[in-house]
Design brief:
By secondary structure, this protein is of the alpha+beta class. It has one domain. A two-stranded antiparallel sheet has the order 1-2. The mean pLDDT is 94.
Length: 40
């Protein structure tokens, strides 16, 4: 699990079709780096 401030690279997305479409629309793509800002 990522801690706040850590950076990770998306290697795969596994989800049902509707959620996957939403994640892609928000810019989540394989190879993209993301930063954990805070826990929700």
């Amino acid at each position: 699990m990522l801690q706040p401030g850590q950076i990770a690279t998306i290697t795969q997305l596994h989800s049902e079709s509707g959620l996957q479409q939403r994640l892609l629309a928000m810019g989540f793509r394989t190879g993209r780096q993301i930063v954990m800002l805070r826990r929700g």
